[in-house]
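Ticket #4471: complex job returned nothing on first submit. Input attached below:
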Amino acid sequence: MQTHNIEVDILVIGGGTAGPMAAIKTRQKNPALKVLLLEKANVKRSGAISMGMDGLNNAVIPGHATPEQYVREITVANDGIVNQKTLFAYAENSYAMIEELDSWGVKFEKDENGDYAVKKVHHMGTYVLPMPEGHDIKKVLYRKLKQARVDITNRLVATRVLTAPDGRAAGALAFDCRTGVYTVIRAKAVILCTGAAGRLGLPASGYLFGTYENPTNAGDGYSMAYHAGAELSGIECFQINPLIKDYNGPACAYVTGPMGGYTANARGERFIESDYWSGQMMQEFHQELAGGKGPVFLKINHLAEETIMNIENILHGNERPSRGRFHEGRGTDYRTDMVEMNISEIGLCSGHSASGVWVNERAETTVPGLYAAGDLACVPHNYMLGAFVYGRLAGESAADYCAGIELAAVDAAQVEAERQRIFAPLARGQGLSPAQVEFKLRRLVNDYLQPPKVARRMEIGLRRFEDIRADLQKMAVSNPHELMRAAEVGFILDCAEMAARASLFRTESRWGLYHYRQDYPDRNDANWQVHVQVKKDHSGNMQVFKRALEPYLVELEETEKKVYQQLRIQPRETISCRR
Amino acid sequence: MMSLLDELDPDAAEPILIAALQDPAREVRLEAARALEAQDSPDAVAGLLKALEDVEYSVREAAAQSLSAVKNPAVGALLLEQADNTDAGVRAGIFRALRELRLPAATLPAVKALPDEEARVRREAVAVLGWLKAHSALPQMVVLATSDPDAEVRRAAVGAIGFSAETLVSKAVESALADSDWQVREVAAAVIGKLGLQELAPALIAALNDSHWQVRLKAAHSLGRLREGGAVAALCDLLFDPVSNLRKEAALALGEISDPASIDPLFEAISDSDPDVRKAANLAYCRIKALHDLC
Amino acid sequence: MAFSQIDFPVKVNPEACIADKGCTVCIDVCPLDVLAIDPATGKAGMKYDECWYCLPCEKDCPTQAITVDIPYLLR
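Support reply: We reran it on our side without changes. The output follows.
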């Protein structure tokens, strides 16, 4: 089979949110660079914001919040396990990014005097900035990519980062999911922007593609970074989201919140104590469901007609336009009915929680020449704006890095070994279908990894994952599309194994439901105020180890800590500073 | 077709799109108007300006929207030439597009458009002045805020004058707080807090009894921003309102005001059935105790 | 699959679809690449049952030929 060879200065893998920004910024930094944006789907409509986004929930805008305040709040929200330098890099660049996006034509809500209409949701700072016309955001990015003369290639599935003998990133190996052509891309620097691992758990419906995250995001980058030797961090801090039941979209309490909507139990009462979309909140959600006060609902039926119409415009127009049709099919009217909610399947996503490829404040991974940004990169609670900011940082860092180096020589053995590995199912003729293997794998993920977690279950899970690994060698496909699904099963399996091993390693509970260990139900700061890292060691084994926290740049003030602590779940009688 | 054009170089696609603005098929004109969003070449702008006169409302809207995304002041000058177009849709579109450009030169044409016969034009024109924070236009804007026959125009105008705390504005906002439309009253209540119009505190306290809880909520919020001691008793009553969003806002406002007189009711609210109210009450309670050294 | 009838969520109206005239908009924008031209008819249709119900195919179709069926639940 023929091989297609490409040489560029910088390769950006993933054309969703962070990727286009990274590509644009490399070209703005140095117009002489040859930059390729590689996308598995089509850049026009790919990634987590394919249909737009209805608002920012972490906008750090002068006058409403300070970077210090933001860093403190995320430190608390992520139970202390943060590299504050990375949070600072985000917070300090957040406003400039909003201004830049605004100048590109992305529309943010402004008041009648043209000032940003930031809404107060959290207690300490104010971070929510609605985007009533946010459905156009991909179009704006696409226009900018064209203006920046970034080369784009769609429908190319990257499967491994190519590495040089000295260990640095040297490009990537990929295949076309329509033609099946094997593609070797040489690059001086590689930026991974492949999004979350959204196809890890199986949705309650049992439907493989009914996931919360865009199912194109199978954890490709997590797996690629791992095999390239990069450290991953916080993998045990899963992503679990509140969803509309029988529908894969979020209920978006944070969108309706500023307008008066909230998450309620069966009696229509608010019960969420936590201020963040966090593991704490999911824990409360889980307890309410388990404790006989469920189901849990999104309640907006007490709002005025004008407000409900506004909510409908935002929720049904932007992020998930299918939502309106779903409610219609079910006969749900926001005016009279509460909307039943449920808990999503598990996933890995730093944008919402903290699980990702380890990066520093310049978006560098631990592998030279390899950068990461967006949902994939470990900068906790980063969301869409964080993807843009880190896309920019990655693009600018990579552009600087490229100036001093040459393309690495291609390791022919690596190229050939990957060709054998990736195309094997096409040559096999008879065997298991990727969908079958994926279903088995993700069913096992639910059975053994879905929190609450316990050691014995996860150990059994790991053994079953080994069985699945044997199944990978039996998959057979008949075309390049199915070959893509087969490659994805490999990504999902790597993510599942990392999730199990990292979760087993951290013998305490933290982040609410995200890492609730029934066998270690308490938080243990003495031993576990550390990052848990996963890495492939030199003999090819999965290594899990502790990485000490960097000293905090912003200490939490005692009084503030106290107030936050009091906002944690606890019996009502004790919530008071009167002792 | 539009998707195929996306693949082209933007410079190559532009003339095709401009030509498509004259296509007999409505869909093609509409798509072309959308696709030309933010294109700021003279040809594209001229084409879009012409499209503001399209027979189809949706095409006119799309053209105005696309022009509004142009962040080029030179384009603003072209838009201004059309500010007294005979078609009201065009006039409204022009002002809508001008808003985000914040061109000082747009002040006079916008003022001239304030008495326009069409409400949508008045609404967009006053918004342009609001974004410009056009001090010189305040007298005319105030007229719209207080006596325009259209509620949506009044609402937009009250918001638009929310950049200056002078008496003229204060008087208009006070009158808007008694408007017949609740959405106008809601904006007025918010503007009082934003501008810190201390003299309107009594009117805000009265608004805590508004028939619409949305107005009561904004009034409570603004009283907090004003740190209005005179509102403590009324806000304490609000701590036990049936609407939980309102109880929460009252607790937050009491925290801002930090009067020891609210300590006991706040302590009671710490046992509210609603967690958000409990959190707000607790924050306010702790803050007052700390400030007055009562711990 | 030969024994079971599958009801695909992406419905294409063959009268309106202009894939046979060279249009590939829906096929291009699908994130999961599940749409393709049916060689028998020249029209677009679902080739793989892997829909995420995200709707760009429907929104971006120049002739409004597509409807994504969302009944009372996704599956």
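Residues 275-291 of chain B form the longest helix (17 residues). Closing as resolved unless it happens again.
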